[in-house]
């Protein structure tokens, strides 16, 4: 039996949405409501970098160039922020494309999803953008992650599928067994497979690089899982935005869920922090550090 200890670090004003560990040993996070990028060294006060207040920064990741890269969902551009706080914005060729997920690829570029344009984008560290059209319309591609097979894997929220794009632009689509599952977050796990969360059906999914899908149901089908990340304990950690919980799942499908202490915490993004703990962004206004404590029965 385990318990999770949670320590909150308050965030000023608008709630944080997504977070990642930067190359400088700090947590970097997006403030989607008021257009800021935040930086937090565990144990210190957070600092902030103001963007256009209406740009809607969403997902953030570390790039191959030692900077942080993020999507601006409302402004329809991809941004870069150095660890010193210098921001560069890159407009995208397709108007009103709604960029959302972003991740570093195996080719030295960043790959991102365009939710409103049914495209996957690629941007080099000097800002050159290439776009690839999906073979389906209305797919709402969402999160994206680099697979261990050299491809980029992404969720297709409204197409009920997981997609893969090779660095040559070749796209494969893998439908999910459960109808209308609405997958969102996705990550590469220790077992070499991709793990994802299905927000509409309350499931955790696993897909191998050859397209075999396994689904695991959460105790609460209305928990609305949102994001997922590997921890150092051999498990995957995920947020339940609608259930006010965080949870973990082992690679053989054993699930544990843990209620957050404050109601309405709205956990969204989740990542492995620079200190080896799992951190989550609570849109109610904090970053939270999670540690597992085991107790004898």
Automatic annotation (TrEMBL):
The active site is at 268 (proton acceptor). Belongs to the Vgb family. Monomer. GO terms for molecular function: lyase activity. It holds the Pfam family Vgb_lyase. The gene is vgb. Inactivates the type B streptogramin antibiotics by linearizing the lactone ring at the ester linkage, generating a free phenylglycine carboxylate and converting the threonyl moiety into 2-amino-butenoic acid. InterPro entries: Vgb, Vgb_bact, WD40/YVTN_repeat-like_dom_sf. The lineage of its organism: Bacteria, Bacillati, Actinomycetota, Actinomycetes, Kitasatosporales. Its cofactor is Mg(2+). Substrate binds at residue 226. SUPFAM superfamilies: NHL repeat. Transmembrane segments: none annotated. This is Virginiamycin B lyase. It is an enzyme of class 4 (lyase). The keyword Nucleotide-binding does not apply. Its EC number is 4.2.99.-. Mg(2+) binds at residues 266, 283. Keywords: Antibiotic resistance, Lyase, Magnesium, Metal-binding.
